[in-house]
């Protein structure tokens, strides 16, 4: 067995966890929060240790350490096993699910914080070993993954926080993709025998990532190879995520601490509630309820933070303006902007009037209505319906609208909107996503994994008297992770 690595020592030797936490660049300076006065950690005691170390840098408005306590979450994640859920959903439910008629009252400035880590090998979610699994069983399972020339893993670390007194929550997800070099069967057996039964039961699929042998075989993280500049910091970020202390935890706390944006919304602004109501398998029991009005926050490459929410009444006007500006000025719609296409341009604009956007979002067949905002400005939206093809026995996610504001290209907003809608569709049991791509956008959708089926004339709605040509494209939801 190889000598212990530095990271292994920092993560496993008593008292050295704080040294590992300090390696995270954002954790070097003490930070003061204005609204958050207490943090309740909805988690098990082992994970709470990591949370508490990371939260040690934060102070309240008086400059004192923010007190915290640990409480078990109400939601039973084990009851759902390997069920597919969109990123951040498990973490959100741990914070937000409460027993109906609970006597627990909202406390001013009390933040309920929870986390969840999902690690996948390909599209297979790694879960804890079944009770009674023998070391031989675990060796067999690990060998199926790690005896290949290289194995590719993806980790998603989600953090969710609910401010009780304003009933407003947000979730943040951080992802990494990494490759592991081939193991021999003897090495895997030696590794398994070096662990205690408790360690084997706690590690998803039996893989304890901080183990020195495992660490030594990680060859690439997010495209950075071992030995290249930046690999060490990538390793720290990866293990932060695997331990559910993601680098961007600070972003989540700042967002929730911002008094100006923490206003309660109506339920139509809740990104997660309708998923609980309409998921293929109910995610909460009859005696439970999900609290809060939730959004997702996503740090962007330029340093800004985008929020992703469900469309609410206040969004219809800015969504309509965004769409009209695209029709009039975006290169993708250049075919609408000529003198001979004024009638068709007017029809596109009318189809996206505030009234028609509202009608589209409120249809009973809605699957998701997502709006993206930066500094409370609408910068994108996505509308998808759900329908059943009885003849083909398919549940179809019908993509109806997607727009990103001009000047916001290159930030990945379109990719985020598309991926979230795909993940929501998969969670709700859809088997394919079907879209009608306009202009030259079909080329972008092909890069996102969509297959071009045909060119079709759309004679629906306002286009009945002059059908417009669209590209019919589909994607198998089994490919979505």
Attribute tags:
alpha+beta; single chain; 2 domains; Aminopeptidase; Maf protein; 481 residues
Task: Give an overview of the whole structure.
- The structure is a single chain.
- With 481 residues, this protein is of the alpha+beta class.
- It contains 16 helices and 20 strands.
- The protein has two domains: 6-290, Maf protein; 300-479, Gcn5-related N-acetyltransferase (GNAT) (Aminopeptidase).
- The chain has helices at 6-12, 17-22, 45-55, 89-96, 135-146, 185-193, 197-202, 212-217, 231-242, 249-257, 273-278, 316-329, 342-351, 354-361, 413-427, 441-447, and strands spanning 31-32, 38-42, 58-59, 68-71, 97-99, 110-121, 124-125, 150-163, 168-181, 218-221, 224-225, 288-290, 293-299, 305-310, 366-374, 377-389, 394-404, 432-437, 451-458, 468-476.
- The strands form three sheets. It has a 16-stranded mixed sheet that branches.
- β13 (293-299) and β14 form a beta hairpin.
- Mean pLDDT is 87; it is low at 461-467.
Number of domains: 2
- Beta fraction of the residues? 25-35%
Mean pLDDT comes to 87
Helix share, percent: 25-40%
CATH class descriptor of the largest domain: Alpha Beta
Identify the CATH architecture of the largest domain. Alpha-Beta Complex
Give the secondary structure arrangement, pairings included:
Layout: H1 6-12, H2 17-22, E1 31-32, E2 38-42, H3 45-55, E3 58-59, E4 68-71, H4 89-96, E5 97-99, E6 110-121, E7 124-125, H5 135-146, E8 150-163, E9 168-181, H6 185-193, H7 197-202, H8 212-217, E10 218-221, E11 224-225, H9 231-242, H10 249-257, H11 273-278, E12 288-290, E13 293-299, E14 305-310, H12 316-329, H13 342-351, H14 354-361, E15 366-374, E16 377-389, E17 394-404, H15 413-427, E18 432-437, H16 441-447, E19 451-458, E20 468-476
Parallel strand pairs: 1-3, 2-4, 2-6, 9-13, 17-18
Antiparallel strand pairs: 5-12, 6-7, 6-8, 8-9, 9-10, 10-11, 13-14, 14-15, 15-16, 16-17, 18-20, 19-20
Helix pairs in contact: 5-6, 12-14
